[in-house]
Automatic annotation (TrEMBL):
Signal sequence residues: 1-21
Any GO MF annotation of the entry: metal ion binding
Name of the protein in its database record: Polysaccharide lyase family 1 protein
InterPro entries: Pectin_lyas_fold, Pectin_lyase_fold/virulence, Polysaccharide_Lyase_1
Length: 378
């Protein structure tokens, strides 16, 4: 019997390894899920919060085939943009206490490939004098998955993904962009946006000049939300079970879909729009997407399988789970803003205008009584 159990466990673990080999992590979804990062590489510890040097984040991400873990919590104040290497996994959930964040400059995967980032806070803000940079840049990158991350105070975009191939942004909070006040810009693709919370932006949530899967996203206090910007290009979009919620900055709730011309082909179902700003979630179906061509079935074979939550169920789930773990001051503020359902929300010009601690960046505690998260926990 013991022998049989041993064999069974061995077999199961071989199966699990096979699953992990094909997918970034258990539960990874979308086009970026094929990334394997540095999962099979060497483990590199970030041991201090310094901008550079031995034990720093910048040093840890300077080589490929690395699985990066954190022995420290708090903000790393970047003096300049930090460039990631290909084939790395960044496990923010390994940090103790309040978790790990990067502030003051761009995190860039530009031109790189095969990257997994989880539970990382990326908050550029006005500390960065380069207004042409974003919170996260993956221009011309391929096979990248960002999961349970928190993006805030991006100046050019929160996420810039021009020329990016096979990307996923899932279960993340993309909030309070300053500067151009834009969410995400994707060209080339394909891209997947799943289960994200987008809060208080002018536009680009996302700007999608590619074939896109957009499932279970919640967009709050937008001026424009999902757009293709009348691009001239022919793209396909699966837009399923998302909830658009107007806020104080929403002057035209009908810009939930924006500049979607007849070169765009769209499969839209299960989407809702709550336009009345009355403090309660009580939207109506919203599946009419500009002058786009209506698709009778999704362009991507995996889109319907992703859409297990209705738009309303996604609101509950995303508000409870999106963003880096553990949830911190900035993300709590973002979530509470959404929970006002139309009553509060500002499109900011600076992180300082939020009134949060630490000049608006919020505080990440170094210690916590909570048990340290296991490396690959969701
Ligand atoms: C993108 O992903 C597909 C599988 O979905 C793969 O066949 C293709 O090679 C990937 N593209 C690049 C540039 O790696």
């Amino acid at each position: 019997m013991a022998r049989f159990l041993g064999l069974l466990i061995a077999t199961l673990s071989v199966c699990l390894q096979a699953v992990l080999a094909q997918n970034a992590f258990s539960g990874a979804v979308g086009f970026g899920a094929i990334a394997t990062g540095g999962n099979s590489g060497s483990t590199v510890h970030v041991t201090n919060l310094a901008d550079s040097g031995t034990g720093s984040f910048r040093d840890a991400v300077s080589g490929s085939n690395r699985n990066i873990v954190f022995d420290v919590a708090g903000y790393i104040v970047l003096k300049s943009a930090v460039s990631l290497s290909s084939s790395i996994t960044i496990n923010g959930q390994t940090a103790p206490g309040g978790g790990i964040g990067l502030m003051g400059a761009e995190i860039s995967a530009s031109g790189k490939s095969n990257i997994i980032i989880r539970n990382l806070r990326m908050r550029q803000g006005t500390m960065d004098s380069d207004t042409g940079k974003s919170a996260f840049n993956m221009g011309d990158a391929k096979n990248v998955i960002l999961d349970h991350c928190s993006f805030a105070y991006g100046q050019f975009d929160s996420i810039d993904a021009v020329g990016a191939v096979n990307i996923t942004v899932s279960n993340s909070i993309i909030a309070f962009p300053i500067g151009q006040q834009f969410g995400a810009h994707v060209e080339t693709g394909p891209s997947t946006f799943y289960g994200n919370l987008w809060v208080s932006a002018h536009n680009r949530q996302p700007l999608s000049k590619d074939n896109t899967q957009y499932v279970n996203n919640i967009v709050y206090n937008y001026q424009a939300a999902y757009t293709s910007a009348n691009t001239g290009g022919y793209f396909s979009h699966d837009i399923i079970n998302n909830y658009f919620i107007a806020g104080p900055s929403t002057s035209s709730a009908g810009d939930d879909y924006y500049q979607m011309d007849n070169k765009q082909s769209v499969y839209a179902t299960g989407n809702f729009l709550d336009s009345n700003k009355d403090g309660a979630l009580n939207g109506a179906a919203a599946n009419s997407v500009g002058s786009a061509v209506v698709l009778s079935k999704p362009w991507a074979s995996t889109s319907l399988g992703l859409a297990t939550n209705s738009a309303a169920a996604a609101v509950t789930s995303v508000l409870a789970n999106a963003g880096a773990t553990p949830r911190d001051e900035v993300d709590t503020f973002a979530v509470n803003t959404v929970k006002s359902y139309g009553k509060s929300g500002t499109i900011y010009k600076s992180q300082a205008d939020t009134g949060l601690s630490n000049g608006g960046y919020g505080t990440l505690t170094a210690t916590s009584t909570k048990k340290r998260a296991v490396q690959f926990a969701v």
